[in-house]
Design goal:
This protein is of the alpha+beta class and 181 residues long. The chain is 16% helix and 59% strand.
Length: 181
């Protein structure tokens, strides 16, 4: 009788373990340690600067940065970025998180706040997702886009602009409020 209880107890433990393992693969959100990629390197207080000959064109600071094991992605937190034309900053961005695809120079900012210097005014841009294509020198925002300046408020589904900016293009049923003084 004692042998049967011991056998049933061991069988119960084995079945429980098998169930947990199988269920973890079916529902990976219940076992995040099994689905998250372990970074290759982790850095703190990071500063990335790009120069065009002798002039600084781009500077990005982050509280933390993690390089993927295959070195194709840099994931950053608490981002502060600037793009310069000469000595003047023409594009500034703050974001809690961002990913840099290292092979093609695409920066993807999440829940971002930014400022863009247009030829005659500075505008504030808020977007859920903002993609900065460094080689093409364009920015594209999507998801709850809000653009404000001293004279107008614009909202819409998406926008795109070149850097340095000459114009801003809104997509997705934009709404514009203009203020006259």
């Amino acid at each position: 009788m004692v042998l049967n209880r011991r056998l049933w107890s061991q069988l119960g433990v084995v079945l429980a373990l098998v169930f947990i393992i199988v269920f973890s693969f079916v529902s990976p959100h219940l076992a995040p340690f099994m689905t998250q990629e372990t970074p290759g390197f982790v850095f703190e207080d990071v500063r990335v600067t790009q120069f065009d000959r002798t002039t600084q064109t781009f500077q990005l600071t982050a509280k933390t940065a993690q390089v993927s094991r295959d070195s194709t992605r840099l994931t950053m937190s608490k981002i502060n970025g600037h793009y310069f034309k000469g000595t003047a900053s023409v594009f500034d961005i703050l974001a809690p998180t961002a990913d840099l695809q290292t092979q093609d120079g695409i920066l993807h900012f999440y829940d971002s706040d930014s400022e863009l210097q247009l030829p005659d005014m500075r505008v504030h841009i808020r977007a859920d997702d903002l993609v900065w294509q460094t080689q093409a020198q364009t920015i594209e925002g999507s998801g709850n886009v809000k653009i404000t300046s001293p004279v107008m408020r614009i909202s819409g589904g998406a926008f795109s602009a070149r850097i340095p900016p000459q114009k801003l293009r809104l997509i997705g049923n934009p709404r514009v409020d203009v203020h006259y003084d």
